[in-house]
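// run 5 | inverse folding | seed 20
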């Protein structure tokens, strides 16, 4: 079980690093769904990993991080449903 949690943590780190690298390289924009999903998935993995290891501040930080990403995704989706002007 511990190995699985550690692998989730490493995958989470990879997702968040990939999001930042793609943003910095200009391959993704900060308001793209792909960027937000990478961050939400990475944060969720960190919540599991840090919670398992008892790192409560990190777990809370990543709950907030994921929440910010979810709000951004909801806004992107609602923006896409509006009729063009």
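// decoded
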């Amino acid at each position: 079980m511990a190995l699985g949690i550690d692998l989730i943590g490493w995958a989470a780190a990879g997702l968040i690093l990939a999001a930042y690298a793609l943003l910095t390289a200009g391959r993704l924009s900060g308001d793209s769904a792909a960027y937000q999903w990478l961050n939400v998935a990475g944060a969720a993995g960190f919540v599991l990993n840090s919670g398992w290891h008892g790192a409560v501040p990190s777990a809370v930080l990543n709950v907030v991080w994921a929440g910010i990403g979810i709000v951004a995704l909801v806004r992107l989706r609602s923006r896409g449903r509006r009729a063009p002007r």
